[in-house]
Amino acid sequence: MRAPSMALLVLALGACDPFVFDDLQDSAGVVVLEAPDGYPSRSLGAVLTGFDGSLGGTEVSRIAAGGGTNMPLAVHEVWNGRGLALGNALYQACDDPGDCDRDAGAAVAGIPSWRPGSPASGEMCLLIGSPTADSVTVRCEEPRINEPLMGPAGTRLGASLASLAPGSAAGVAIVGAPGANSGDGAIYRIPDGSNPVQLSVPVSAIAARGGLGSAIAVAPLPGGATLVVAGAPGARRVLVLVVSSDGMGGVVTNLRSCIDGPEDGFGGVVAAGDVDGDSWPEVFVSRSADAMSRTEMLVMLPGTGLPDPGGCSAAWGEGAVPIPCPAGLDSATCGRGYGSALAIGDVDADGLGDLIVGDPSATARGHEDAGAVFVLPGHASGLDGMRADALTLSSAEPGDSLGAVVATVRTDLDAMSPRVEVVAGAPGAGSVALFLCSGLEGDTLAVGQRCTP
Amino acid sequence: MRRCTWLVWVPLAVGAWTPAPGLAQDTGPEDPDRLQVAREHMERGQELYLQSQFAEAAAEFQAAYEAQPFSAFLYNTAVAFERNREWDRAANFFARYVERDPEAGDVAAVRQRIEQLRTWTLRERGAGTNPAPGTDPGQPDAGVAGQVGPGPQGPDAGTPGPAPGPAVEAPPQAHAVAQDMKALLTIRTNPDGAQVTVRRGTTAVASGPAPFAQTLDEGEYRVVVEHPDYRTIQQEVRIRAGVMYVLFGEMSQGQFLGLLRVISSVPGASVYVDNREHGALGQTPFQNAISTGRHHVWIERPGYETVERDVEVGLGEEVEVETELTRVSHGRIQVIANVRGATVSVDDREVGRVPYDGEVSAGMHRITVAADGMKDWEQGVSVPRGQLVPMRVHLRPAQGRGGAWVTATLAAVFVAGGAVMGSLSNNLADELTEERDAGRLANNDPRLLSGQILAIAADVSWGLGALFTGLAIYYFLRDPLPDSTGSAGEPRDWALAPELGPGRAGGAFRWSF
Question: The complex's ipTM?
């Protein structure tokens, strides 16, 4: 009996604990959300948004990701009111025939509610663009609402979407219609519970065949106003609008700036947010994804230094700050897709917005086109490139294209200070990555898999 | 063993005999009874002859001849007829004598005497007269009546026979003397076949194998009896005429003997005298004749120390050697087993192979018998001094350990594999933990699965290693086959049979179960 006992003892002492890896997986700082079973596309992550709100009185947050046009949107739970609840998709939007218009899924934005207070109000809703149908579908989680919002025919309404902060005078979202006016494009706002209403943009600022509204970004301004950034990549132009209440229940739109870029595709990607703490959002412009063969061009236009809207052509070069790819990072090197996706959020909870730049063609961990997400922390002077970091997948594979789309989502709805985390789509891998730790200096892993400042 | 006896001469004077000239050898079977009959007739004839009763004497001599056909009896018969003046009959017996013993030394003289007797016979027939019995035919007798010993025999001695010459000699006178007769010498030996030579001076007058008989004239002779295996006998003999001598020669190997007696405390010891290579003369208790002088005696018995003694044996002396035999300081073991060639070890030192016998020091020893593929047999055995301990061993097959080794190898492989995979898993865990702590670990990192698989595989491998280790231990310990058996018999004396051969000397031990 002694020998077997000794053998068991040796076995016990030498045994490996396989659950260590389960623990590691559970505590991983990067949560990769896979496509739900039966998802029809392998390109999950082509479109993406993060949103939060109240669901039955509980603050929750969600990530909605899709495979692109005509693909359902998989909605993942992130925060369930008690903590992180990352796992399989809660549901899929537009997965049943009739839920959405045709080719839905080209763009998506989340809003906390739809027609609040009305009997048919919904919570935690998605706005799903169907540009080929010139519509946007409202899909609420509770109660389940599928409500199409139709635009004028031929406007390609829904090609881009940006949700507005609650209480915005402009409504719940801004939606682009790059096909309007024979391709000149237009910008619509979606009032809460109503069909889209076109924003009044000076005709002089609309370039012919510019496709205005191909990209939309919004940022709140003091007094309930909203800064709307709309790209017209066909005309290398970006319009910066200020949408505010007219005091009579209506809104007024003012052109803040008209910026023409030097190369084609300029304005294909836009973002807006305050990164220097002056309460005036900065505008970030990059090229569209189909123009990535050219040299990188990501610029920042400080909110306080936006050019006057007097002459669009004269704007470039005045106050535009190039944002080059952060160099010297071990985890990733930029590719030609640097800036193909932009988002702004305070990922390190320092009170300043941080720029999130996607580069699906970056070489990560030695894998080409694995993609990466660069985080450039905000700074009083703009962006602190010295603290920039790259977020990659430790499971990176060539062609993952991480960073094809980027977004943010709140994971600490119970915290006093708001904090968002980076979400990036990897359509090449068919997944979405939630980075619970920004990787920025000062933002360290303290509890669980989340970083805290 | 060669006999050792004494030589005894037994001269028998059968009777006086009238010496006759010449010698004649008689050979033939000598029946002791018939010889005695012949001797008695000869003695009677001799007595009658000296009483001048020649006819009766002749009859007795003829009867003696009938009993034992020695030529001397024919001669004596002829002489008796001659004295009785029966010339013709005397001539006839002389003629038979010559015919019977043609090699006799006096044949020429006897032939001349026959001629003389024939002449007398013719003259008496021509004169019509015959010499009267008991009358002297005119020639005085030169002998002395009653004399025993060499007398006037034959021509050289001036025998009383008719003298040669043209004149007709007178018939012999009727007065008889013993010297007229022939003597007879018979010799028997033990053993038969000894070569007998009778010499007179330097001249050999007769020789032949015993039993031997020879007609002799009176005189001094030397009798030599020789045999290749016995001592030569030489004896001076005085032969008187008319006497029949019967000699018995008991031949021996030595003429001076004593008696040696050897007694040992343990009977059965071999006794060697003077030369061991000649082999043992016997075993104790030992007693035998021995030549006189100084001798060296070995007393040996297997298992006992050899005892050596020097003894002095006088003529006719009985010398007794009594000794206490002590056992040797070592013993012997003998091992037989069912596996020929199995190694035999004494106290872990290999000493030989089965079948084995050999010396070991007396005392307790551990005997081991081993063979490939068989289970060892081992036993402590007490080996007494000077005795043989027989051992019979039955080796049985050993359990094959191939399966155990295979299992042990598998166990080692699994354990090593477990260690390697565990190490890889740990390394991965460390690496992933580091990345996790940096917030860079993706929950779908394939290394998580790899590490988990490695960990599980390591555990499985460990488990299999432990299982196979246990199995290996079990297989190593498991032995369903019976053990080898053996037994040590009761110690016994061993027998040593000396073996001697050209260029070697040794011994062979014999034992049995």
Answer: 0.89
